[in-house]
Amino acid sequence: MPPPPAHLNPSELGTKDYWETTYTSDLSTNFQNPTHTGTTWFTSSNASPLTLAYLHSITPPLSKSSTTFLDLGTGNGEMLFLLRSEGGFKGNMLGIDYSPASVELASRVAKQKGYKSEEVGFREWDILAAEGWQGGEFDVVLDKGTFDAISLNEETDGLGRRVCEGYKEKVVGMVKMGGRLLVTSCNWTESELREWFEGKDRDGMGFEFEGRVDYPKFRFGGREGQSVYGVCFRRVG
Fold it and tell me: Residue 122: which of 87, 72, 83, 88 has the closest Cα?
């Protein structure tokens, strides 16, 4: 397989401590003011509604009653709540995060919104450190900024690689055969995301490109670009 794109420079945004501090603060504020539901990534880019619109555009249509969703790095759980309330999806939904404060916040907000844990559940899971995911496979796995954050983490794995290099092999087993992984990023372009995720591993498992979420484009210096990319991959092999 070709080498991955050049790594990003490490940042505190790639550390677990940063996000635990962020969601602990959000949780404290929510206790005092329940209308404060915490930090939501890509709000200014309208990412969540655009992601939902893409999911509604898939043909044949995803089943509203049975499609299952896994939200990687769920934060405050906002994406799952949107899928439930505005998307009309009723299948099993699970959000995971390596921050205990995130899981507590999302669970608290779910309760405030009237959701039962069997409808929208949350679980602490460190995808970087944990081995052997036992939570089952899902029809749609969502990553809204999680790969971005992991790409800013300077830690290395047991093979001496930056941890982002092992992310795909951890995620692929969470997606059902023929299911989808939808990655939203402000750090990587579409072509770079395809370099990271397309292709099969030695066991023949992997992803192929399926489609993209349409985000606003801008022109500068005679060139066209965009600040956020959303790419959908299909599980194969």
Answer: 72
CA distance 13 to 22: 10
Residue 109 neighbours by CB under 8 Å, 6+ apart = 30, 37, 38, 76, 77, 81
- CB count within 10 Å of CB 171 equals 23
Tokens of 12: 């505190």
Cα 193 from Cα 189, distance rounded (Å): 6
From the CB of residue 52, how many other CB atoms can be counted at a distance below 10 Å? 18
Q: Please give the full DSSP string across 174-214, using - where no structure is assigned.
A: GEEEEEEEEEEESSS-HHHHHHHHBEE-TTS-EEEEEEEE-
d(CA 63, CA 109): 26
> Which pair of tokens denotes residue 84?
């439930």
Going by C-alpha positions, the residue among 56, 52, 26, 30 that lies closest to residue 40 is 26
Per-residue confidence in pLDDT tens, the chain, 237 aa: 567 789 999 999 999 999 999 999 999 998 889 888 987 878 878 999 999 999 999 999 999 999 999 999 999 999 999 999 999 999 999 999 999 999 999 999 999 999 999 899 999 999 988 777 889 999 999 999 999 999 999 999 999 999 999 999 999 999 999 999 999 999 999 999 999 999 998 888 899 999 999 998 876 666 777 889 999 999 998
Closest CA to 233 of 171, 158, 174, 182: 182
In a 3-state reduction of DSSP, which class is residue 35? coil
